[in-house]
Structure formats: structure tokens, C-alpha cells
Amino acid sequence: MDINSDLGESFGAWRMGDDAAMLDIVTSANVACGFHAGDPAGILQTLRQAAARGVAVGAHVAYPDLVGFGRRNMDPTSSELVADVIYQIGALQGLAAAAGTRVRYVKPHGALYNTIAHDARQAEDVLTAILAVDPSLTLMALAGSPLIGWAQARGVRVVAEAFADRAYNDDGSLVSRRLPGAVLHDAQAVADRMLQLVQTGRLTSITGQPVAIQADSICVHGDSPGAVDMARQIRAHLLQAGVALQPFVALD
Fold first, then answer.
1. Which of 38, 68, 141, 176 has the smallest set of CB atoms within 10 Å of its CB?
2. Which residues contact 214 (CB under 8 A, 6 or more apart)?
3. What is the pTM of this model?
4. Distance CA 192, CA 125 (A)
5. What superfamily in CATH does domain 2-240 come from?
6. What does the alpha-carbon distance between residue 47 and residue 194 come to, in Å, rounded to a whole number?
7. Helix (H) or strand (E) segment spanning residue 120
8. For residue 49, which of 3, 101, 97, 109 has the smallest C-alpha distance?
């Protein structure tokens, strides 16, 4: 199993999360590309830390929305969205090369992530951008979403992920952040929940129903309160149960 987290999101004097601590825990790092968060110097530092720890790096591409942290819905034209995603991947590739690593996958962020999980037009735009930059890049997508099939149809390798710190609806979709109980904070309960996922392929929905989730990566949001402790407990819980932890992409 892979454990990933959204990192590189600090901006100037605004500090977001503890990248150094998270990089000692996770196996993959979704690194901001400057559109929703992150400044070049901070991104470069995070990439250097990831390289030093042997953590796989992915481009955490987003809508151009610094004020809203990339969590506001947008409707860019196809030409805009394709160019925006190419621009962000390219920027991170340059910084990654300077840090002694490389970008191996793409994970869209926030509103873009949720939109392309079900919106065919924007999904095709993101896939077109990935193929234009590097067809070998893997796309990380929401487990159970139509995006997985769309990516496979375009020849893009795709890996499904589950969210450790998010509640699920009965249909396998994420509970909206606007609703109470959408974000989970009990580190021990979350660790137990992720072990259940790995061992059974199921999670318990917000209404108490079992939900089938096929995932090869577990995400812990780096900006959530107590994120480091939560990730640490998940890692320890899985290792204690004999689960091997490694990036979903090969490091060469």
C-alpha cells in the first residue's frame, strides 16, 4: 500500500503543514505547483526533502485559485485547462530536476480533482495535458469514479486512492466539506479504518453502511489538524499488521 499527502503548500510567510515530518512517514508526495498554493522556494525545499527520503513525487495540479486554496469550482475553456495543467507539470518538472528527483505522477487538487472525477469534458482536458507532457505519468484518481475508466481508455495509467481523513457517502463519493462529519480527526479511529480498507476492501459510510473501495493509495491531507500524528498512526498500524508500504510507482 502507498500513503500519500499533499505537500509544498506553504506560501511566503503563510505556513501550511509540516512537510519534513510528513515526508518521514509517507511514500508519495503530491507537491503543489503554485496555482492553489506553494511558492517556488518552498516547493523546491519540499522536493529536495522528498528526494533525500526516497519519496515519490507527483504534480498536485489545480485551478488558478490561491485565494480559495483551489477548492472553488471553475469552468475554464478546454484550451485554458489543458495549458494550465501542462504549465504546472512543467514547472514542477524543472524544480524536481534541480532537486535531484523527477515527477512520476499527477494528482489534481481540490475542486479540480472532484470535478474531473465525474465531468467528462474537464477530465479529457487533464488527460490531454498529461499525454502532451509525458505519457508515462500516472494519474491518481478517486476510487470508484468514472475518471478511472476514461483514463484507461486514453492509455493513461491510473491509480485509485482512498482518503483517510474524509467521510464517505453510501455510494462511495466523498461527503461534502460543507457538511458536519465530513473531515475525520480521531487518529486512532482513522488508522483502524484504513486497516479495515486494506484488509477487506471496504469502509463504513457516514450512515454506517459498508462501502466497497478499491484503492492502491491512502491520502492524508497535509493541511488537516493533527495530520502528522494521523499519518504516523496509519503507517504504524499497517506495518504492525504486516502490510508492506511502498510507492505505487517505481523509483529508478
1. 176
2. 143, 144, 160, 201
3. 0.94
4. 37
5. Glycoside hydrolase/deacetylase (3.20.20.370)
6. 27
7. helix 120-133
8. 101
